[in-house]
């Protein structure tokens, strides 16, 4: 006797078996020029800002780059984790998960210079946040998916704390487009009239290095809270 699987069960089975394994590239992605920035097992390709290697506070846990706050409490130095390489025109895809009440961010266009003591002094940020429980969640332009302190998302798209979010940043000749979980949240062009207005109405209006470097590092922010990143991949344009 033949066995028949209900349509719904068959659909769920197909979905579960076709889901992409974290930290891997499909054949289609490889053909399109995507490269992994995180191999799923080590911090190779990354270092702490203004250092030569990654701080021991950044560890690989269950296939994710994780900021270990307990390690920091035990004396391990923290700091933002940045790519060894610099990028100018690209598409970046990254999955993130934030701790309860946590804050972090994906910072890009980062210029590494001893005179600049932090990544955010030069690099704009896509916000990563527990919007419900972190104090920043009460402020406009400070929620997940926002262009931090510059432009608010057109639509809120973050998943609840503990779930993985898929963020995408496209940067091409200064034009920025953000997506969060498949929803376009931001579009603007660096150096445009709109950008200058956004800058004038932000905390960055007097920061001389902010957003000034077309080519720069990509950083994962240590804001003092637990955060996890995985499936970090880039396609240069």
Automatic annotation (TrEMBL):
Q: Give the domain of life.
A: Bacteria
**Limits of the 3-keto-alpha-glucoside-1,2-lyase/3-keto-2-hydroxy-glucal hydratase domain:** 33-235
Q: Which residues form the signal peptide?
A: 1-19
Checking InterPro entries in the record gives: AL/BT2_dom
Under Pfam families, the record lists: 3keto-disac_hyd
Which UniProt keywords are present, listed alphabetically?
Signal
Q: Which GO terms describe its molecular function?
A: hydrolase activity
Bilayer-spanning residue ranges: none
For this entry, the protein name equals DUF1080 domain-containing protein
Species whose genome carries this gene: Chitinophaga agri
């Amino acid at each position: 006797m033949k066995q028949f699987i209900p349509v719904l069960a068959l659909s769920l089975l197909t979905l579960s078996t076709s889901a992409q394994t974290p930290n891997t590239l499909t054949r289609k992605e490889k053909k399109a020029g995507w490269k992994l920035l995180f191999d799923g097992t080590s911090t190779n390709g990354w270092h702490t800002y203004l250092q030569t290697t990654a701080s021991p506070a950044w560890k690989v846990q269950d296939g994710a780059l994780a900021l270990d706050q307990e390690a920091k409490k035990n004396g391990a130095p923290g700091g933002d984790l940045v790519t060894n390489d610099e990028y100018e025109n690209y598409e970046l895809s990254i999955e993130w998960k934030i701790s309860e009440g946590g804050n972090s961010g994906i910072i890009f266009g980062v210029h590494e210079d001893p005179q600049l003591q932090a990544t955010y002094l030069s690099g704009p940020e896509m916000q990563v946040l527990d919007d419900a429980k972190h104090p920043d969640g009460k402020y406009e332009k400070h929620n997940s998916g926002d262009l931090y302190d510059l432009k608010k998302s057109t639509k809120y798209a973050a998943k609840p704390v503990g779930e993985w979010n898929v963020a995408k940043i496209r940067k091409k000749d200064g034009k920025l487009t953000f997506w969060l979980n498949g929803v376009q949240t931001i579009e603007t062009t660096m150096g445009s009239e709109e950008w200058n207005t956004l800058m004038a109405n932000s905390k960055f209006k007097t920061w001389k290095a902010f957003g000034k470097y077309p080519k720069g590092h990509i950083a994962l922010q240590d804001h003092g809270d637990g955060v996890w990143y995985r499936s970090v991949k880039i396609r240069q344009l």
